[in-house]
């Protein structure tokens, strides 16, 4: 039987690709990997990516969501609040984009998700995990 080893990409449905790129660009720096006209855009996340797909009608997500790992969740929260976007109270950082996608903003240092030193270096990042995240990784035999 195959084992799950990670995520290569996620796809979000949005009403307009250019508007989605502008909206997400208010809160985070990103590299555009490519586009497929006005139908799709691909945003790099280090060694993975997010695919934005155009869809006219969309219901707001209630429980379905994805965790977006960032290097500074407080900076993202501040930018969201400054832009008038409703964000859940700390420690959560949940937000809905204009198309109903629920995004949970999480700090790289606080979760067991990890990148190799080579990937972090390639992204220009030097981030140290919290003691709690290190303990989670050790508990699963994923760190020493």
Could you explain how this protein is built, in words?
With 144 residues, the chain is α/β, with parallel strands linked by helices. The protein is built from 4 helices and 7 strands, in the order E-H-E-E-E-E-H-E-E-H-H. The strands form 2 sheets. A 4-stranded mixed sheet has the order 1-4-3-2, with helices on one face. A 3-stranded mixed sheet has the order 5-7-6. Strand 2 and strand 3 form a beta hairpin.
Helix-strand layout with pairing:
Layout: E1 9-14, H1 17-25, E2 32-36, E3 40-45, E4 48-54, E5 66-70, H2 73-82, E6 94-96, E7 102-107, H3 117-122, H4 131-139
Parallel strand pairs: 1-4, 5-7
Antiparallel strand pairs: 2-3, 3-4, 6-7
């Amino acid at each position: 039987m195959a084992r799950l080893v990670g995520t290569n990409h996620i796809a979000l449905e949005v009403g307009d690709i250019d508007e989605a790129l502008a909206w997400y660009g208010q809160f985070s720096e990103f590299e555009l990997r490519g586009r497929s006209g006005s139908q799709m855009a691909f945003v790099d996340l280090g060694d993975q990516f997010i695919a934005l797909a155009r869809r006219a009608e969309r219901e707001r997500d209630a429980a379905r969501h994805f965790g977006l790992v960032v290097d500074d969740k407080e900076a993202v929260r501040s930018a969201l609040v400054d832009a008038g976007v409703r964000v859940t109270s700390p420690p959560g950082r949940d937000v809905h984009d204009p198309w109903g996608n629920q995004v949970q903003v999480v700090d790289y240092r606080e979760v067991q998700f990890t990148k190799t030193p080579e990937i972090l270096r390639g992204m220009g990042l030097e981030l140290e995990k919290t003691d709690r995240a290190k303990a989670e990784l050790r508990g699963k035999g994923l760190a020493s």
